[in-house]
Model the fold of this input.
Amino acid sequence: MVKINGEEWNIAGKTVAEYLATTSYNSKRIAVERNGDIVPKSQYGEIVLEDGDSVEVVSFVGGG
Done:
């Protein structure tokens, strides 16, 4: 199980990109942190999520 934004998901073995493809996140307006480290956007397709990982996805909202 992978914890994403505090919720458990059965997505171990998927890449960050594969997970994000199943969501409504705008990949240009998010940051992904895995186990306390920021994941560079260029590595979303390479980083494989593993059991016990903790992931935070943060969306940036524009405005003024």
In short: DSSP finds one helix and five strands in the chain. The chain has a mean pLDDT of 94.
